[in-house]
Amino acid sequence: MLKKTLTGAIVLFAMSGAALAGEQYVDETGFAISGYDAVAYFNLAQKDDGMMQPHAVPGRADITADYNGATWAFATAENRDMFLADPAKYAPKYDGHCAYGVAKGAKVPANPNLWRIVDGSLYLNITPEVAETWNSDIADYIMDANDEWSDLEPKSASDDSWMEMSDNDGTYDMAAPIK
Question: Tens of pLDDT along 115-143?
Answer without folding.
Answer: 999 999 999 999 999 999 999 999 999 99
